[in-house]
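Re: weekly structure request thread

Next one in the queue (463 aa):
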Amino acid sequence: MDAPLTATPAPNGVERSAIRKISIRLVPFVALMFFINYLDRTAIGFAAPNGMEADLGLSAAQFGFASGVFFIGYILLEVPSNLALARFGARRWLARIMVTWGIVAFLFTFAQNFEQLAGLRFLLGVAEAGFFPGAILFLSLWVPSKHRSKILALFYLAQPLTSVVGAPLAGLLLQNDGVLGLEGWRFMFLCVSIPAVIVGVVAWFYLKDRPSHAKWLTEEESTWLETTLEEEKIGTETSATGIGGHGVGLGRVLKSGRVWMLAFIYFGFIYGLYALAFFLPTIIGTFQEQFGTEFDLFEKGLITAIPYVPAALALYFWSRDATKRGLRTWHIVIPAIVGGVSIPVALYMNSPAATIVVIAFTAMSIFAALPNFWTLPTQFLTGTAAAAGIALINTMGNLAGFAAPYITGAVTDATGGYRAAMFIVGFFMLLSALLMALLSRKRRVGPTATAERPAAATAAGLG
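Done, posted below.
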């Protein structure tokens, strides 16, 4: 058993109350922003099998391309957007991002063909660029490293809950054919775009850029947070393994092997995540032909939501275990292996129920790993290097976001089914497990030796 990647000494009273307030006052709002973000970017997956593909005359490959081209727009502005966030402040920049993507999302209501759909997806990616890494960076500026696994787990709960709540909601909205003279899928796009604009405006006034600006913290809590975060920043910048400080930018980050290794690990997880997100509603749509079962739109929405309920539970309890024990390599490797094996196996099941049960294991695996993974970069990156490094890692994930739906759609068209495409998904997730195991080999030392090294140096074998 490997030694903990992060130490977790017992918190004092001021520390407990500060983290509790952040968990109640700040994290739910940022998670709501993430909820809306993920719903808007994956709404196309609900629309496709419920009228959009037929109305716009889309093939599986065209749908895959339109789904994935979002990430090309995202990638182009990912790093510049996160550097701008570091310069102008998270409050302003995250609010600006939300309002912009809400306006673009609204225009999907009026798409008339594949070219318009693909163009809007590209623009949506441009509008959303920097939101997710910006949110991760924002939370890291509020939360000391030993609490980040717990806080990021609470934040990440928004992603599976988007499907738990969003899938049945999408089903209900899709049934409103003819409302305002719109097809059901167009009405759904209209409805999911509005919250982004509203919450974006609220974020401008609600969010604060640092603990000292928050009136809901006591002076003692604010001082403890600012002092602890500054000590961690200085410790990381002065350690042999840390990358950060003023004037450190993209150039040095691009030369970091640790950053690139984490980026490729993240690629595999996101490949699995978006293959699941975009094609699960379509796979469920094939149940009638495959198993002779028929479901209405709301029932399909409920079935789509099923795997994400245990996924949310797995995310919470797995991250809680990582916080309690200290993050270990197997907190990331085991989920990657389970996900890589389960996703192709799901399509060999002999009933809808068995298929959904196996897919639930895939969803549980992906969401158990992701919040723990995101505690790693900020253990050796600070300042502008953190902004650039987190954005670079997320950029690789967005490459997977483009590749996964496009390759899945193209392979499905070529083979006439999803089995070959799901084996490719499994391969990339297993590759992530292998890379994480290789990255951790450097730090196979005893608990005493590990405790004597800086947290940044021991993180994921990055020392």
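Residues 244 and 382 are 4 Å apart (CA to CA). Confidence is low (pLDDT under 50) at residues 244-248, 444-463.
Next request, please.
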